[in-house]
Every structure is written in structure tokens, then in C-alpha cells.
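user: can you give me the structure for this one chain? C-alpha cells are fine.
assistant: on it. calling the predictor now.
[tool input]
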Amino acid sequence: MSSSSPIALGWRLGLVCSLSSLLPAESWAQTAPSTRLDPIQISPPEAAKPKRPSRNNTAAVRSRSRLTTNPAAHDTSQSAVSSASASPTLNATKPEATGSRLNLTPLQTPASVEVISSETIAERGQHNVIDAVTQDGAGFIATPAPGNGGLSFSTRGFAGSNSVMTLYDGTRFYVGSGTLTFPYDTWSTQRIEVLRGPASVLYGEGAIGGVINVIPKKPLATPYNDAEVSLDSNMTRRLALDSAGPINPNVSYRVNATGNMSDGWVDRDKTSNVAVSAAVRVQASDNLAFTLSEDYGDRSPSRYFGTPVINGGILDALRFRNYNASDSTIRYRDNWTQFKTEWDVADGIKVNNTLYYLTSERHWRDIENYTWNPATQLIDRSSYIEIFHDQKQLGNRMDTTFSGHIFGFANQFVTGFDVNHIDFTHTNNSPYAGASSVNPYVFDPGSFFATTSPTAPGFNAIVNQYALFAEDRLSLTDQLSFVTGVRYDRPEVDRTDYRVPSNSFDVTLSGTSWRAGLVYEPVKNLAFYGQYAVGVDPVTNLISLSTTQKTFQLATGKQTEIGVKQSFWGGRGEWTLAAYEIIKTGLTIPDPSNPTGGLALQIGQQSSRGVEGSIGLALNDGWRIDANLAVLRARYDNNSQVVGGKIVSYDGNVPVNVPQQVSNIWLTWDFAPNWSVYGGVQIVGQMYSDLANTQARPGYNVVNGGVRWKPDDRTTVAFRVYNLLDKVYAVTSNGTGQWLLGMPRTAELSINVKF
């Protein structure tokens, strides 16, 4: 029977509809796998990598814009891939947008760049951005918590939203009070690009550790429809839809939605989420296109703030206990509206402009700290916290790319500007009073309002940010290129303190970032590179600067990096190796002449050095292996804090939430026609939860695996098991003897249908 026959189509749709009955009619889900459960396919290097322009061929470098080609060049939703071992997953020969604004491939970029495709994400059942980045990218771990919105990462020795930036389709949402809540799911994601090392030259302050760029699916010129349902052992019900195609010869669209409802894996922790993404692309002429997109997320995420540590570990009997109040609540609502213009002005001249309006509304009402009291044998609860965030950001980013020759050398040059206006209001019930004690095993969770302080506006911050940037790639020979970049940022912060008006202030900061690198390709698809980069970080999120921080300048990070990358074996093998050193200066430490006066000096220093490697191999007989390893030595070189009225030095200690070793290993095997099995292990080393390095958090190895069956070319059935060995491990810590545990062993069944 043909898979495209009416009977087969009806069978597939009936199967999806039957399983969707598991979902409440009003429910939508947080996350779901991407549009296709087929593996990634990389074209042979000859087709995937742009030809190196000759210095004597002007036409070769003055190529027409991608406007006249498929607007979703990276979208392989409809590609025919027959084998899970078709190719590895490093994507070294495909152009990417995160490591450079010049549309270079990772092989052409003098930096550590990886591209994680939607096929890889879907194949491994990575329903959220955190899992996709930390389980596929080299050197990343996540430090998610309800208080930071769940999107906090650590890489190359630097942790948190001050140092590791998250973008959505190249656009940055400025982080307020350490919190970022979008993007979170991967159903709407076409690929995730990660850049390790200082990226301020491209995206501004706050990216000394690296950048994560989540790129959504784009409108398609041919019809495409996709649906998926899944159910797991935590009663997580997920429904996802994706549709794309032409409206008329010049207009195309993409709409996808995913919804989730779950009972959760700890007590009293039901969650629900919805994410909707829509885009319309208008090809106004051969050289001009407009794209209007709207992305919306509404989440009621987990209200689990962690498990108290007892005698240095977690008791099995407390693993599934939730000590939050019965009337606790968390909700995030995010809206991203973007209008993009792509204009091919003339041969060798292209203009891109993105106008955007972003909003986020957040609310927390929780009891957040739980401490074991050995004297009373009770759990002491404190920090009855209620917070509202109301954040709006209006911005515009424009760049112009010139392709041509300088003194006979092929050259690509891009320059542009980035402006933003941010309005952030923080409402809270500080000083967060309230306390209670409960039995660890059997207790009444009580009400948040039983003992608390009133909620009222705290402060408002208006930030106006201006930036100019430029980047250049000069091909000195057919084998050697010189890549440089520079960016100047000038943010202005105007803070109004509603509680203590005298603490209101306005301040203007500035920072210049730059990088210079060489790429040498002695033979085709083998590249050696070296880079020196300078980036800047704020002492805290810019829009959350307090009056005691208003005189501080941006901290500076300097990185030296060398490396080698190769794509070989007709694209079936890829590997990378990089070594780096980063030194960050400008950390704040107490003034030794007045340790209790609250004054600080900006003379602290932190450094890290490390080695990172990745490899992907598509072997014979349906086998594929992907692996990466990051080993580093991160230290505080000059850091101290006031403890008990005295200055305590932490020089030589490991920074908080920074493991010294991170690795991932994935193995896939097509063991029979239309059948494949996979398994992977995420290995994270020990880390510390405090500056003194007295609160060690054990490392962990988490094993995930699954099997996939394709009864026909448009249907995929997958059975997955997450945390196969049921490892009890801590993802992060609040630094006060409380660990946020990872999900226990969870089984999931999903069915994906394309029609």
C-alpha cells in the first residue's frame, strides 16, 4: 500500500487523533521534538561549502543574495534521509549565523562554533533548549532554577546570564534580575548554534563565556505538515503541530504550536505550557523580501525549588518531596514580534534590518529556601518571595554587507548598528519576611500568605543602548584568510527606586570589544586557526544595576584561542580540537581599608584555560558516533568577600557552578530496515556551590536512550527512556544547602506523522 494513499493517510491521522485524546482539550504543551525524527544529512563538502573566490574573479564574490533561493536553506523538514548514520552532527561545512555576520561556515570561522540541527534534537528526544545544548554541544552545562527562568548556562569557566548569552533568531532580550524565560522549547527550532568564548564583538556586553542562538523554523515555498503526540510516565501529555507552505507565488508561511500538561515528578507540581510561532514571508521582488514573525509563550513551570541536603547528600525518602506552599505559583508570558527586511541592493551589496518589540511578564509567589535543622529534625522554610517583572524592549538592528576586492584580494565586509530601549519594572515584597518549619516526611504545605510582607513596586529601570559594529574577512590567499571584528557599546541606565528615592541614579557605560583571527586551510576542509578576542561583561545585568554598583565599569575578558577543524571521508567524518585561555578582570571585591562599609574595588580577576574536542563519525553497517569532551582549569585569581566582618580571600578557588570536566557520547545503530536504536551519556564533573569551595556538589553521569520505528516513510514511532539508570543527581544549588535534582527515570512514547 502506498504511504500516500487515502487509506494510509487516514490511518496516520486517525492514530494521531486517537492519542491526542490523552490531552485535555484546553491543554497545550511546553516542549516537543522537532519536525522530523529522521537523522541529519550533511551534503558532501563540495556542495555544502561555498567555493573560495578567486582574487581574479569579481563575479565569484559578488554573489546574489539568498533572497532568490529557498528562504529556509537550513530547513530539511522534507529531505529524504534513509539512515540514521547518514552523517555526523557537527555541521562544519554549513554556513551559520552566530560565529560571524558574514555567513561563514564553522570551518571558515576562527572560533569554536557548533550547529545542532533539529534532526539531531528530535532524534534524541530533547524537548527543551537546555537538554539540546548541554547534551549535544561541547563544554556546556545548565544551571536552571525557577528563580532564573530556567535558561542559565555555564561554559569555559563562566556561569550565568551575565557571561553566557542566549539569543532567539539573532535577537537578544536584555536580562532583568538574572531572569530569562524565552525561548524554552525545541519544536519550533530549526537549529541551535553555539559559540564558545567572548562574543561581545558580535552581540554586546554579557557574553565572555559564549553565546547560544536558537534559530526558529522559516516559511517554506512548498507545502509541509507535521503533527506529533507523546505521553510519558510523569503523565506529561504533549501535542505539537507544524504547517508551512505557499500562500501565493510570492508569499509563504510557517505556523507551529506545541502544548504540554504534566503531573510533574515531585509532589503537587502540575505544570502547563503553550508556545505558538507564526511567520509570513513576502518576496516583494527578486531582490527584496520581508518577514513578519510572532512568537508567544505562556508557561506555568515547575514550582519545585529543590531538596534540602542532609549530612552532605540527599535522602531517598525526600527525593520527591516538594516543600513549597500549597498556593504557590509561577507564570511567564513572553511575546516576540519581529519584522525583517532583506534587500539585495546591487551585486556585492546586501542590507538586512530587524525591527523588534519584545515583552515579558513574570510572576513568582513561593517559599524558596529549605534548610535541614538537626536540632529539631525539621525543615526550616524561609524566603517567602513574591515578585513581578514587567519588561518591554523596542529595538532595531541593521547591517550592510559588501563583497568585492581590496587590492586584488577577495574581501567581505559588514557594518551596522544596534539600538534598544528597555523598560523594566520590578515589584516585590522585599525584605521577603516569613518563616515556618515542617516535618520532612509528612506535613501541611501551608499557605504563602500565612506569614509574609506586603508586595509593592520596588524599582524601574530605563535602559537605552546604542552600538556600532563591523566585521571583515580578507582572503590573503586561497588557503589563508584574516577575520577581524569590532563593536562599540554605550548603554545608558536610568533607575528609579520607589522604596528609597535617594537611591535613584542614572549612569552611562561604554565598552569596546574586538577580535582578530587567522584561518589557514592547507588542504580542502582542513582548517587551522588562531584568534585573540576582547569582550566585556557587566558586574550584574545592566537593567538590574543597584545604587552601590552605579560607579562600576564593564569588566573585561581577554581570550587567546588556537584550534583545528576538519570534515573528511566525504562528509561522513568531522572533528574539532581547540585550546584557549580567558582572563577576566574588573570583578568587584571589598575595599580592604573599609571592609564593613559596603564599598568595593573593581580589581578582582578570574581566569580559565582548557581544551575542547568534538568528533562525529558515520560508520558502516548503520553505526554513527558523536562525542565531545571539555577539560578546563578555572580559578579565582583575585577574589574576596566579607564574612563575619572580616575579608576572606578566595584566591585559587574554583568559581561557583563550574565543573572541570564535561563530556557527551552518543551512539546510534540502524539495526534493521526502518529500525534504529540510540544511547547517550552526559558526564559532568564535580562543582562547588559556594565561593569557599566547602559545598561540593557531586558530578554525575546520566544515560538516555531509545528506539525508533518507521512503519512507513511518513510515520515515526519512538520509545525513549530518560535517565535510564535512575541516577539521583543535582542540576544546580541555591548555595544554602539545597539542591535542585534532575528528573528521575522517565519513559516516553511518541508518534510523529507527516502529511
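assistant: here you go. The first strand starts at residue 112 and ends at 117. The mean pLDDT is 87.
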